[in-house]
Amino acid sequence: MKALVCEAEWSPRKGYRLTREEDAKKSAINGNQVWKNPRLSIKEIPQPEISRPTDVIIKVKACGVCGSDVHMMETDDAGYIKLAYRTKFPCVLGHEFSGRVVEVGSGVKKVKTGDMVSVEEIHWCGQCLACCEGYQNQCLYIEDLGFTEDGAFAEYLISDEKYVWKLNDIMETYQDEEKTYESGALIEPTGVAYEGLFSRGGGLRPGGHAVVIGSGPIGLAAIALLRTAGAAKIINFEISDIRRKLAGRMGSDFVYDPVELKKDNVTMAQVILDVTKGTGAHILVEAAGAGQITYPEIENAMEHGAKVIALGVTAGSSPVDIIKYQIAGSRIIGSIGHCGADFPRVINLMASRRIDMTQIITSRFPLEKALEAIKQTAKKIDAKVLVKP
Amino acid sequence: MKALVCEAEWSPRKGYRLTREEDAKKSAINGNQVWKNPRLSIKEIPQPEISRPTDVIIKVKACGVCGSDVHMMETDDAGYIKLAYRTKFPCVLGHEFSGRVVEVGSGVKKVKTGDMVSVEEIHWCGQCLACCEGYQNQCLYIEDLGFTEDGAFAEYLISDEKYVWKLNDIMETYQDEEKTYESGALIEPTGVAYEGLFSRGGGLRPGGHAVVIGSGPIGLAAIALLRTAGAAKIINFEISDIRRKLAGRMGSDFVYDPVELKKDNVTMAQVILDVTKGTGAHILVEAAGAGQITYPEIENAMEHGAKVIALGVTAGSSPVDIIKYQIAGSRIIGSIGHCGADFPRVINLMASRRIDMTQIITSRFPLEKALEAIKQTAKKIDAKVLVKP
Amino acid sequence: MKALVCEAEWSPRKGYRLTREEDAKKSAINGNQVWKNPRLSIKEIPQPEISRPTDVIIKVKACGVCGSDVHMMETDDAGYIKLAYRTKFPCVLGHEFSGRVVEVGSGVKKVKTGDMVSVEEIHWCGQCLACCEGYQNQCLYIEDLGFTEDGAFAEYLISDEKYVWKLNDIMETYQDEEKTYESGALIEPTGVAYEGLFSRGGGLRPGGHAVVIGSGPIGLAAIALLRTAGAAKIINFEISDIRRKLAGRMGSDFVYDPVELKKDNVTMAQVILDVTKGTGAHILVEAAGAGQITYPEIENAMEHGAKVIALGVTAGSSPVDIIKYQIAGSRIIGSIGHCGADFPRVINLMASRRIDMTQIITSRFPLEKALEAIKQTAKKIDAKVLVKP
Amino acid sequence: MKALVCEAEWSPRKGYRLTREEDAKKSAINGNQVWKNPRLSIKEIPQPEISRPTDVIIKVKACGVCGSDVHMMETDDAGYIKLAYRTKFPCVLGHEFSGRVVEVGSGVKKVKTGDMVSVEEIHWCGQCLACCEGYQNQCLYIEDLGFTEDGAFAEYLISDEKYVWKLNDIMETYQDEEKTYESGALIEPTGVAYEGLFSRGGGLRPGGHAVVIGSGPIGLAAIALLRTAGAAKIINFEISDIRRKLAGRMGSDFVYDPVELKKDNVTMAQVILDVTKGTGAHILVEAAGAGQITYPEIENAMEHGAKVIALGVTAGSSPVDIIKYQIAGSRIIGSIGHCGADFPRVINLMASRRIDMTQIITSRFPLEKALEAIKQTAKKIDAKVLVKP
Fold first, then answer.
1. Can A282 be counted among the known catalytic residues?
2. Average pLDDT for consecutive 10-residue bins of chain A (389 residues)?
3. CB within 10 Å: which end of chain A, N or C, has fewer?
4. What is the pLDDT of residues C176-213, one digit of tens each?
């Protein structure tokens, strides 16, 4: 079958100390320190086959491009991939996807052939202390689909049933296969926002005001979820024109371009205080990954008891004036990825028409052009780019 | 000024033991045990005057009729009022209202003359252990507007500023005084649902399915709030035609008449399991006050970890099969009234157009006809009846 | 190897409708409706062998007798076992135990040969919605060690590694194998109390007063845990002399015999209000399984915001006056079994000497006398009886 | 009567913009920007008198010295007081105290003459949105006893009843007036730790490991509370010998001197990982006010889902590597002061002998030597210094 494979050279940087595990498995915790000269190409590889009773084989129907796919393609000056995350090459990329079950192992209970499904990106063991306590995202033995295990820019994919969730209810609502598969491919990024806002963050008090900084796919999902969960005013900051437009469509009441604000010598904090009439926001989502700029604004715009949800990934430390969190009785809550019941709860929201994430899809490519899809994403013009085999 | 006054005879039933407090203040904890032969009439009484620095005088603009107003008018066979709640007569009735501030005491900070406002029904001391711990509803020294203190079926009303909340943001959104005052008169019953679902109940996981049994004003508010807070499927049971229609309009996806179900030999639990494809509901609201019938249904329709929110008031004990709550890992959460930030959060939801409770108003009467308004409510045809001085 | 095996006849009562699953697997959801004429005896059966890469074989060192073991031995008038729970016979009984790992499958990561361990009783799938959402106790595909799968009144036992937790830290603290294994055999009932109080119940506010009704092993564990978690006054009610004595030793400040109270015409609610100077208790644990008697007392002794933790199993419905939960802003929280991180957190408490559950062991028997151990337990004189192969 | 009065000159620094409120009331939000040349002295001032129905007059029995008292005495190079907090001079200092009620206003319900009491330091309005939502600490109209209103280094003090809580239960337990008053003077700092750990922080899962950095009175209280709330291993870091000794006495299992660690080239994070066998801590309390040093350690020693409780006040921003909180699924929770039910819950813990904070008292002075008491505290040799009129 055809698949977009990423290959690279295992060449740990001088000074980087591999863990015993990394060395034994040739699987990097931080790819940026180890993998050099990546080559992405459509290849012909063997179709996956059932080998364990819990295996499920899925024909891929749609797979979104993530910023991390771009960072496995792009390199720094020394030739290392930009992605500072778990990686093991060669690997088929793609981890935001949907498809149809075409074969199941003898012991599979959750799905059957013909089911429309999506699959979690994070592969958790389910038995370590973190997993047992509901922190599968913090699993001690984590693996990642499309990073350390073959992903979904391919015709077929194999997964353990435990990561697989049915989309049948979305199909029942819309009676539209395209809509269902495209919705399905957007569950993963929506799940990332759901995890931060609800599973880790504990949700908001309906009637509280909300801020989302950054409107990439995860920021846009956060806006849609805040809107469907009862935020009063929703305020968004985003530099891209097209994303600001989508932010409004997903439910943001107030949308600002930080570049324009700067020209007017107005800070984000001032805007938030102005819109909320001085109270500040009840929940503030950092989805920009620009912590050095955003946290110093956030800390000046918090209502008493505010929740700051950290979703964006910032390289390096951010300055945080802790006393401001003390005076406000507020908190910073870290979240990454998704787990638990994030997927099925997001599916329910889609199936009951509470959110429609397909609105953020801006381009579609066939599998043969998966590499072009990644390059298109790298231009940062789009919101979400899909590959549809 | 004109006001609807309720008078009655202090005549404790044989066998009822008055507390020392009840006797001293001639204020009953359970009116049904003490007050006989009620007479409701429009009277001319003195207009309230500022006597303390924190007093606020409000010109009433709209006041809803509550089922408890009916129960102060109606009597049982022995001539006692039906209402088993705190009461001290004579008293001006009416506790779901809005109005305009016309005068404030010298120390008032929260509002100023001209502000559009609504006022909490429950008067809490703010300093006992319950109040300090956020259970103002469980205040040791509770008083009730329209029950033990003069209420709002009147031209004017006096309140301590601490119970008063501004509606100005609703006015800013709608630019419509009528809409603002009518919304304002519906904050109280909406606050009762908000308290149960969010302040006491801790809210729902967006994407969970919801059930509301009973669609009086509080059940209808629960539907509107569940819809705005991210419930997936919302299922309602209600016997009145007009209320079922309103349930749909407020956001219920599935609406059933229990009488019809019974004819078909189908239980509410079966319907819930059917609609939720066997999982049961994530959150179930008892808003019917018919616990002997409803709890035995609820306990057969709970998803793991379900929350059962008890809002309706049932006379006497209900049979509860506790093992079903153990097997489901679920809970019953008692809630009554409103407190804390329920009012301002509901106001935010109205001002940001997330909910519009004015849709449930089915009749309007002038102050002179307040008694007719109560009699109309007693017919149980309406959803919400307003008195507008 | 030797093992205490329970055999019985599959003979569904007239009128009991087997589910398809029950019929196919000959495994009853409610044993009392299906299994007749139980015979418990020490038998020679084959020693378990590793067949899957995640198998662990454990040499049993200590196994507690549970009330449910008694209920599989005892029958009602029609000859059916008294236990109304999942069962599949023949089955080796025993589910509260500890032992030493003697062999592990090729893929086992959590333990290694020689580790001292305990094993969860509830076997959860880890992938259904309930499991993923942290309700492994509500798993759709639940199995039970010592009920539907061979248990620990035996020389050896086999388990999937995911249910196994190490006791090594207890050994490190006490440097005493006997103490470690006996502690290990008490993790399961302590985990049941931990689940209810903390995992489902969300814990208490330190400085709140606590009530425990019933001092069987789970009630005693609840007392120990409430003491170690910051309850102020702890009040216990229990009819057995020896258990009342142990309640005091585990940390209860006030211990009453309900039989004596009745003679004095004093209710449990009155005692609680008296001890708490009228405020009522912050957390109340039903560990007696006598709901028809206990809930009507509990509802009269609740502080605002009280948590009622339902641990005891009561047959049939209990009368619950819901309005009292509304007026108190309180709740009933159902809990059964244990899951998630209950075992490792209890182990930490034992290893750091915060609780010492071995104090409740009142008798010890060798494996050959396991049946006598169950009969001894049936006399209800003891707190906890151990079988030590 | 005699009292320790602080006087200073109102001299706003150049560039500091007074708010309208500050200017009108001559009350500074940040004293360090406004007040110059402080003079502390024992003066004869008029005894307070009842003027409002809710006033309570208290004869002071014991009052602790706080670090903030030192910072009102000490000045920077420009002559400004070091304290960057609300202040209005002249003011009687002292805010951690206990005493006996000697007179009450006509409307007082909470206490009566003769009651032994302690009083909250933070004076909250009880009616703004923050107060109503349980964030009295974030009150919009906050005042502070001993900072903006006359405090307790005096013979008598006047307070509104709402801030007053009875110590009678402690007296009932110990039957010792000295013990009761000394315990009472320690409620305030203990309440600060209680607020952070439980009221804001939501408490810990019993059996989780805990870290406290810094063992001033608040750090010591945190240790005592963690111990009484079920922490497994408690690890403390503190540079002062006497405080490390007290940390052990309050319940810390492992106590380290960071200076010694540094000599050995070992970080705090390494120690925590070592003691917890690699898992990191479940709850970590910053009570040192040295965020630039402590947060970079904390973020490397967190278990999945860890709670970092920020109690210490650090001047300026601290570097926080947010991605570490995302990867751990952990959070930083800001807390300052106390409110709600912190005082009565701490009193319950003292009255039931769960904590005994009097152990941290290291010196006692008569009122006449209150200034010496502050100077003694400034030497940072003691844990807690008491002034006893």
1. no
2. 98 91 92 96 98 97 97 96 95 98 97 98 96 95 96 98 97 98 98 98 98 97 98 97 97 98 97 97 97 98 98 95 96 97 98 98 97 95 93
3. N
4. 999 999 999 999 999 999 999 999 999 999 999 999 99
Q: Name which of A115-119, B143-147, B378-382, C37-41 the model is least confident about.
A: B378-382
Contact D301, D275 (CB under 8 A): no
DSSP of D144-200, one letter per residue?
A: EBTTTB--SSBSEEEEEGGGEEE-HHHHHHH--HHHHHHHHHTHHHHHHHHIIIIII
Q: In this predicted complex, what is the ipTM?
A: 0.96
- State how far Cα D152 lies from the chain centre: 15
B381 has pLDDT over 90: no
Nearest to D136 by CA among D150, D122, D149: D122
Between chains, do A127 and C341 touch, taking CB under 8 Å as contact? no
Task: Indicate the residue of A232, A345, A348 with minimum beta-carbon distance to B354.
Answer: A232
Q: How far apart are CA C291 and CA C283, in angstroms?
A: 16
Average pLDDT over residues B93-120: 98
**Residue type at position C226:** L
Which DSSP state fits C10? E
Whole-angstrom distance, CA of residue B275 vs CA of residue B286? 18
Cβ pair C225:D225 closer than 8 A: no
Min distance B351 CA to chain D CA atoms (Å): 17
Label residue C38 by pLDDT band (50, 70, 90): very high
- Which residues does chain D have within 8 Å of residue B110's beta carbon, measured at their own beta carbons? 127-128
Please work out, in degrees rounded to the nearest 5, the angle formed at the alpha carbon of residue C364 by the alpha carbons of C362 and C366: 170
> Which positions in chain D touch A29 (Cβ < 8 Å)?
none
Closest partner residue to B322 (CB to CB) among C305, C318, C327 is C318
| CA–CA dist D190, D225 (Å, integer) | 8
Interface test with D, best of A86, A331, A338 (most D CBs within 10 A): A331
Quick count: other Cβ atoms within 10 Å of Cβ C249? 14
Q: Are B334 and C333 in contact (CB < 8 Å)? A: no
CA distance to partner chain A, nearest, from residue C192 (Å): 16
As a whole number, mean pLDDT of residues D323-342 equals 97
pLDDT at residue D194, as a whole number: 98
Q: Which two tokens stand for residue C175?
A: 């440097």
CB atoms within 10 A of CB A177: 12
Cβ-Cβ pairs closer than 8 A, A with D, add up to 126
Chain C residue numbers touching D208 (CB-CB < 8 A): 345, 348
pLDDT, average across residues D274-282: 97
The set of residues, in sequence order, having a beta carbon less than 8 Å from that of B257 and lying 6+ positions away, is B237, B238, B239, B241, B244
User: Could you please report the per-residue DSSP string of C138-199?
Assistant: G-TT-EEBTTTB--SSBSEEEEEGGGEEE-HHHHHHH--HHHHHHHHHTHHHHHHHHIIIII
Using DSSP bridges, classify how beta strands A143-144 and A122-123 pair: parallel, antiparallel or unpaired: antiparallel
Q: How much is the mean pLDDT over chain C?
A: 97
Tell me the residues of C at the D interface, defined by beta carbons under 8 Å apart.
Answer: 194, 198, 203, 205-209, 225, 228-230, 232-233, 253, 341, 344-349, 351-352, 354
Distance from CA of D369 to the nearest CA of B (A): 35
Q: What is the pLDDT of residue B214?
A: 97
Provide, as residue numbers in chain C, all residues whose Cβ is less than 8 Å from the Cβ of A340. 132-134
Residues in Cβ contact with B270 at an 8 Å cutoff, skipping those fewer than 6 apart: none
CA A97 to chain centre: 12
How does pLDDT run across B164-217, given as a tens digit for each residue? Answer: 999 999 999 999 999 999 999 999 999 999 999 999 999 999 999 999 999 999
Chain D residue set in contact with C, beta carbons under 8 Å: 194, 198, 203, 205-209, 225, 228-230, 232-233, 253, 341, 344-349, 351-352, 354
